[in-house]
Design a protein that fits this description.
Elements (H helix, E strand, L loop, with lengths): L1 H18 L5 E4 L3 E2 L5 E6 L4 E9 L3 E2 L2 E4 L3 E6 L4 E12 L2 E13 L7 E2 L3 E2 L5 E5 L5 E6 L6 E2 L3 E4 L8 E8 L4 E9 L5 E3 L3 E4 L4 E8 L3 E8 L5 E3 L3 E5 L8 E13 L4 E16 L5 E5 L3 E3 L4 E6 L5 E6 L3 E3 L5 E2 L8 E10 L4 E13 L5 E3 L3 E3 L4 E2 L1 E3 L6 E6 L2 E4 L4 E2 L8 E10 L4 E5 L3 E6 L5 E3 L4 E2 L4 E6 L3 E8 L3 E4 L2 E4 L8 E10 L4 E10 L1 E2 L9 E5 L4 E3 L7 E6 L4 E2 L4 E3 L8 E9 L2 E12 L3 E4 L4 E4 L4 E4 L1 E3 L5 E6 L11 E4 L5 E9 L6 E11 L12 E3 L2 E5 L7 E7 L5 E3 L4 E5 L3 E3 L2 E6 L4 E5 L4 E4 L4 E6 L8 E8 L4 E9 ...
Parallel strand pairs: 2-9, 11-17, 19-25, 27-33, 35-43, 45-52, 53-59, 61-67, 68-76, 86-93
Antiparallel strand pairs: 1-3, 3-7, 4-6, 4-8, 5-7, 8-9, 10-12, 12-15, 13-14, 13-16, 16-17, 18-20, 20-23, 21-22, 21-24, 24-25, 26-28, 28-31, 29-30, 29-32, 32-33, 34-37, 36-40, 38-39, 38-41, 41-42, 41-43, 44-46, 46-49, 47-48, 47-50, 50-51, 54-57, 55-56, 55-58, 58-59, 60-63, 62-65, 64-66, 66-67, ...
Amino acid sequence: MKKHSIYSVFFFMMLVAVTGRAQLQVTLSSNTACPNEIITVNVSWPNTSISSLSLTGTPGASGTGNLGTSTTFTISHSQVAANNFTLCGTGTNINGPTTSCIQFPLTVNSAPTLTFINQVAYCPGGTATIETTPGGNYYTVTAGPVNLGSYQNNVFTIPNLSAAHSGTYQIKSIGSCTSSGVFTIAVAPSVVLTANTGSNVCENAPSVNLIATMSSGTAKDWMWKDPSGTVIANLPGTTVSGPIKTTDQGTYTVTASQTYGFAGNTYTTECPKVATTFINVVATSPVIITPAPGSDVCQGGKLGLAAAVSKNISINWTGPNGFTSSSNSPTINPVAPSNAGTYSVVALFTNNYTTCATSSSINITVVPVTVPVVSMPDEVCQGSNFSFSVSGGPNVSEFEWFGPGYTSKGQFPTMSNIQPGSSGTYYVTAKYVGTSATCLSTSLPHQLVVVPINSISVIPPTPVCIPDNAFLNATSIGASQYTWAGPNNFVGSGPNITVYYPDVTASGIYTVTAFFGGGNIVCKNTASVSLKVNPILKFSLIDRQMSCYNSVVEVFGPSGANSYTWTSSTGFTSNSKDIKFASIQPKNAGTYTLAVNLGPCVTSGSTTIEVLTPIEFTLRPQGRTLCLGDTVTLEAGVTGGSENYAYSWNPPLYMDSPFGPFKQFVPLGTVQYNLIAHDIACPNYTIAYPFEVNVKQPPLPQLDLAATEGCAPLVLNIDPKIEKESAITTYDFGGTKQFQKEGAFTYTLSDAGTYNLTIYSKGHNGCLGKYDFPYPLTVRPSPGTDIYWSPEKPTTSDEIVFHSTSAYDPIIYQVWTFQGGVTTEVLPDSLISNTGIDTTNNSSPKRRYEKFGKYPVMLVTQNDQMCFDTVVKYLDVIDDMNVYIPNAFTPNDDGINDVFGVKGQGMKSESFLMELFNRAGTLMFSTKDINEAWDGTYRGQKVKDGVYTYQIKVVGMNGEGRKEYVGQFTLVR
């Protein structure tokens, strides 16, 4: 760029020196270029206003022709040579019209050819790295088997190669010049090396074969390696010889090379291939059987079979009598003769793919055994004699008996004069002899009970008084049951019996029999005793008597007794038949018991004497002070006396009744009360208590409203006249209309409806008052009028229709008032004002407004409730003009957006002006015709793409709304 600037300045100085006046000056972005490379040219003409420019060049030049007034343009040339261009211009300076021409060269050089290195053969999945001549800004592969796109430097990396990449590619170097070339990629075809499917074999198998194959092409350098990495063969197939051990298990790897070349083997490569297979060896072990207790087993015993084996996954036993088991150590318990025979076991081993087995067997014999059966009694009486026996199987060698202190051999033994010590468990053992085992069989245990017979001990009964029960007691060690017999056919059972409520005829001898054993035999013994029953004196006393203190009390005893004895809880004693208290006191209260004797028998009775004490208050109502309307609770309590009391209140003012201990009522004034209580059992016991209930009065409003009915909003002047008496005054009109206020005030009810006013007051004395205003407050609804118009957003050209809505109909009267505009209806002269204010009672009046602005509209309405509404709104009239100016257009003759012009509505065709300028401020187009548009030409020539400026002036249809628009738009072809 520095060279170009120096050259341009030098060229300009020569022109000035020769001509002696200002000439055209040219600056090129570069004096050298590649074929068809775009070069930018900037033109200047000092002190001269350019009118037009034109450019010519040698054949192969582009960008020539009429340039208009554009001082920046582009050129290019297709011929490799030093090419000349001539620029001529016309203009005006201080001397008048002038012309000037200037010639300048552009040297075009040929583009170099690209060369490439690293063109070799590649294996599939590899990466190709191609390097070419450096110097381009970027490189683009323009053609080839696969689209490789663009690269930012001269080294191209192509990863994940496949056969599809093979072939010749064309590439361009994009920079100061565009160079091109071709390179070749060769990728070996994708082949697969496979090994045979893995093998699952049992330990000690004879051998395993390994085989590998290549899917296509030529392979060499075969090699097999075992799991430890040791080379075992250099062939496609080999054999691992047996017997196979667990150490042979693992992954076996085979490798080979794929040989690839093309184009007469200019490029060749070898691609390594790998495949694997495996050998899984199922480990096994022998099975060893151990029987317990041995191979010769007694019938009824337990046979254990233990299989010793390792690494197995399961065990499977089979044997006589349908025997099967999957346990390592199965048992047969008890063993029967049918269990004799051969037992076999199979152990299974696996790796989840192959299952292997080992086995073993053993022979078991069973010695037949029969359980001996004992025959003997369960119970015998003490001192008796008896015999017993046993039976067993045909192969018994001997019997042996065992019992408490007793042993014997033989099948039929005997016992004499048996005693209780022989009671206990008896059993017999039978002996059976087999091949290698001796078996014993024991009978079921037999329990023998020797029933002891003992003497009976009877306790003589004490003398019995009628109607007391008589008790007879007998004991005998070991007796299981007792029965009794006596006078009057008396019978009973049990060691201890009761003769209930006997009379004198029950006296006599009673015999008891004791029984021993009680199972299969009965053993018994007897004894006797004498019983005497005596008569008694029967009487009764009053159970309970209540007395007032200082009264006379007497208690009378029965006649005919041998003696009398009085005792008491108070310490009182007497041997008289009767007792008497001339003036009983509370200290004499208690229980008195009388015991009378008739021979050896004593009878008794008792009575309780209660002495009522004087009564006294335990709870007395206290005098109190409360507010009018409060509830007072009075409660009284008395103690002493009979606990049955009567209460009376005097005077019974404000009470529902004068009686009872509990009173709850609302007093209306202050009262002096006297409470009286007395004992109902002893009416002479009376007590009294005086007290006072003081009632304070709350503030009482005196409200007089001038009006209780009217239209919404209804204004109330409220003065309750209790300001000095009330500390807090609350007003409740119902619902949420509750508030507190002091003194006189004004309150407005805005909503229509009926309201009931309640005033709550809290006096300085703390009392709360409630006052209900005696009349309802009625608020009649106002019309609730609103107005609107159509159209909603009117313009100066619209006829506007006004409408109204009302919340409360019917409307019986309405008047519209307008200021500004003119009516489109016929109105009486009396309604038309020369002040610009019109009125009408039409329901939907119509008007026009020639000037935009805001105008007041008022409507007065009255409904059938005789209530009025006044609504005032402002009408906003806008200009009717709507202008649309595009921000771009495309004059390319496609019939779409080819011209730039103004569109819209409400615009006058007169007084319209549109002017369009380029960036240099040159007027490119001007018109006063609102329907005319610019086609993107200047003086018959198409102008270049770029940004242009517009100035547009329009006037509304009604002469109002003069507007001027200034902005920019873009021309794009």
